[in-house]
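From the shared-data thread, chain only:
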Amino acid sequence: MSGIRLIVGLGNPGPEYERTRHNAGFWLLDELCWRHKGSWRTDGKFHGDVARVEIEGQDVWLLKPMTYMNLSGQAVLALAHFYKILPDQILVVHDELDLPPGAARFKQGGGHGGHNGLKDIAARLSSPAFWRLRLGIGHPGDRNEVANFVLKKPRAEEQQALDEAIEQALRQLPAAVGGKMAAAMKELHTAAK
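Structure, as tokens:
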């Protein structure tokens, strides 16, 4: 496998969404950017906030789409097309209802599981072959409550579990970026329950 050249964090722009479950992807990217001494800049051409950092000796683009979740693919396609980045060189970090808080999992391809951000990215790239880093947020138990649930702040114990999962994932990202995804998956899936 080639390495990861673009890491996308999914979320919604604006202070009213900042601490909501749906913005878990933004949380991880902000921490990643800070740790690698990057700085965010808003780029209209890429419909989002972008940063460029070095991880494992490799230049990696970081992207937070500012299009709202349902149009995330617009930003991903614009940057990937401009820099000739293939779907399997993209890692999308997102909240995952089907995993409990504290769980984090890498996955390549597959369906979107009702996640509108993933759905739009797969449609615009004409491929579901991008990598995902799924950050568990749990499920409200009733599918009619999902929209409301993802747009609310996690409870304190859920936030703590999410923060721990993000930390575990950040430790494995250098291996993933360097093309050692199997090793990164094994370590993360063992560490973040």
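The two ends are 26 Å apart (CA to CA).
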